[in-house]
Amino acid sequence: MAISREEVRKVSLLARLLLSEQDLDRMTVQLGAVLEYMELLSEVDTGQVEPMAHPLDVTDVLRADEVRPSLDRASALANAPHHDAECYLVPAVLGEE
Amino acid sequence: MSLADLTATELLTRLGTGETSATEVTAAFLRRIEEQDAAVGAFLSVEGERAMAQAEEIDRRRAAGRPVGKLGGLPVAVKDVLCTQGERTTCASRILRDFRPPYDATVVARLKAADAVLIGRTNMDEFAMGGSTENSAFRVTHNPWALDRIPGGSSGGSAAAVAASMAPLAVGSDTGGSIRQPAGLCGITGLKPTYGRVSRFGLVAFASSLDQVGPIAWTAEDAALLLGVIAGHDFHDSTSIDLSVPRYAETIGARPARLRIGLAREHFGEGLDAEVEKAVREAVAVYESLGASVHEVCLPHSKYAVATYYIIAPCEASSNLARYDGVHYGYRSDERKLVAELEAERQAMEKSGDGKGLEGLDNPLVRLYRKTRSEGFGSEVKRRIMLGTYALSAGYYDAYYLKALKVRRLIREDFDRAFRDVDLIAGPITPAPAYPIGSKIDDPLAMYLFDLYTVSGNLAGICGISIPCGFSREGLPIGLQLQAPPFEEERLLQAAHLFQQATGWHKRRPAIE
User: Fold this and answer.
1) What ipTM was estimated for this complex?
2) B93, CA 20 to 30 Å: which among B1, B3, B154, B188?
3) What pTM was computed for the model?
4) Residues of chain B with CATH 3.90.1300.10
5) What is the second-level CATH architecture of the domain B3-258+489-503?
6) Separation between Cα atoms, residue A28 and residue A3, nearest integer Å
7) Interface residue B24 vs chain A (CB under 8 A)
8) How would you classify the pairing of strands B43-46 and B117-122?
9) A82:B332 CB<8 A
């Protein structure tokens, strides 16, 4: 297998996903098959090749530093599942101690 | 004959002469949706009343002699991946089920400014990840030519809506073939513009270096009309290119200056269905009879395109989709329940003396992210997030992501070299006609391999079009792909139009049972 069940579990935390034991099994098999297929790339000689992250050569598009209207707070908060008049609300991260 | 059976160009002519009205046209398509969408399932939402009100307003303006936009009164179906202010934009995902964007995507704003009647929002694979539209959280879309078959994807709803004459025009997005492939499988015309031709502002991001928005229609002429409206530089998208946009709809009748057509041996290899190959070769022969010359070209790295794409696209996706956290917008898991679960886990671990477990236990915020995302995303999206996260993680980045970026350049260079000798590259759009719904759903790799002819165009950033070029014995459409160098959409459209002047495949309509 190209990837172990333990690695899949570790990646699920990095990916901020929570997989059931059954999902872990399935994901291990499916990702394994896909990663095995990716091995195909190892036969390509890329020693002298520059990576291409983007199809266009444009870089650093600049604009005048002018103040423009942006989203107001009410609109920015409108879609939040849990908010008060000013903030997004999340569960407490720090304990009571 | 219903107005819904006419092409967009034909309808526009009649609207211009006053022979028909936007109200009549919109009503005809709404009626078609009512009759057929229960069987086809192309739409996630239909805005009948709003569309009629918009059509009436356009008719009033036209009657008063005031200016009307380029699409003046033509219904357009929009893939549910483009933000529309105040209207649910779901990407066919539970995580965005009730998301109402605070602004319009530039493409949507341009459609509105051109007086398109926004008739409804179309189904898709969740977050545009998939090639069958089976990965929608909300409904299955059926191919209008054979209801047990997939319509293709991810813009399967947009393609099926046009193929079933439920909209004369539709907008899709194409990250690895998601416009061209469903257009091919549904027997219509779909164009993926060059990366940078159309603004991505307000297009919900899947893979930011690959995504493009483009037109889906019956004919190249109609696609030219729609592309002319949505293309062009946008202040809000720094990757949109500041190049003048040709008047596609006006120049489409011109013959391309040169017609040297390239055929790549790599496009006719193992796995290509015999009927598809035959139809594609016959289409090339049509071009020859129209004066084109045919040349062999070499795209030696095309066999690596699928592997390269399925590293790069998931990497970009895993990063883009990190924004769905249950905090800023979208679905959120039940907080009280998850805090209680976490507490129960902690107590169980304390009781059993599981020190390692306690150390690794999620804090409530991390658990909120994980539960929200696991409940909100479907399996294919989770697979790609996992794949991308893995490929970008410490120790694997060089072997997967960096390697794929290098092969991407080789794929681009193959095209650059080929386009020195030919004006267009012709080939199949898919290795086979539409497959039965459900037949590949548990085999992601088989699904990915179906994309072998389309993903390289996105990796290279060139443009491509799919046009109907025949039918299988079972009556399923077969698509021809034409590809051209960056920003040569005009050439693609002219060449596609030339073919459609000489053939009748694009005129066939499915009989929906």
Assistant:
1) 0.95
2) B188
3) 0.97
4) 3-258+489-503
5) Alpha-Beta Complex (3.90)
6) 7
7) no
8) antiparallel
9) yes
